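Dear Dr. H.,

I hope your travels went smoothly. While you were away I took the liberty of generating a structure for the chain from your last submission, since the lab meeting agenda had it listed for discussion. I wanted you to have the full record in hand beforehand rather than looking at slides cold. The sequence, exactly as received, is reproduced here:
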Amino acid sequence: MTFLFKIELPFRPGGYLVVSKTGLLVFEYGKNRNGFVDLEKRSFVLNKSPIGTTNNKMLQQSCIFESDDGFVFFPIHTLARERTFLYLPFKNKFKRIDIRLPNPCFTFGNGKYGVFYLQDEEGNLEACSFKTAYEKGAFVPQMKVGKEPLSNFVDVSRIDDLPCQVAYLSVEKGILILVLQDKPDSVAFLEYVNNLGTNPVDPSALDLIKHRDSGKIVLIKDGVVKRVIEMDKTPFKVYSQPFSDSVLFVSHGDILDAYSTDDLTLLTSLPSSAIGHRSFFLPDGRMVYEMCGDTYVTDSSPLAVATKKLKESKQNY
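The corresponding predicted structure, in token form, is as follows:
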């Protein structure tokens, strides 16, 4: 990777949000101050946070959507806060707007690919794009995944289980991708309990039953399970590419895999350290990260590499 430049900030950054191809909002660590970074001008302007945001309801705990009016800050889930704000770049101001969202309701992604989703009383998934919610002023279902395919991988009786597994969701493509750890072996657990007091049991056996070091990546399209990838190490979804709709990163062990969100084609494998703790990607593939309180920008990022391979594979096909 090639170092391009850095931007000095008046505070330690605790979070970033991409608001355009060359603009970022940066939030102070542990506080609610924020400012705008212009990557073309390599400048920083301090913003005034809107009334109604506190340390417990920070703007950085938001999803963002670019509208014709400016940038909309949606709550990451309605259990955290219900207020939505519109950021006006030309005026460098925030104002509160009202959008009717169900409670509980969760979000996936950012920008034009952002989606609200929930589970209804029967356990079915319903989803609505950020664009539709903003334009209609309310959650309007546009995509549905039935309880049956979900129940094989998710505890549909718990409203908080599905959000833990969702790694990708697209209303436009009708695609849902889950990344999950394998559930404990209930049969092995019953055998373990039945053997207690009668046969010597290896103490480590219970740990193996409770914590299975394996998992799956599941692709559901148009409500039907299309592909399941078995993993010998527990997979974890990586949220460093909020403005990418084509590539999904999944880490397992010391490996970071990049998959096509269309069909889970493996695009490239990298060391897990390829993406830092507080790093993210710009739409053109450049990576932004924080180190020692400063903001750095690099090119030739993992997202750029994966996207290039995705384009090459489609051309060859």
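Two observations you may find useful: Residues 302-316 form the longest helix (15 residues). Helices lie at 130-136, 147-151, 161-165, 186-195, 204-210, 302-316.

With kind regards,
E. W.
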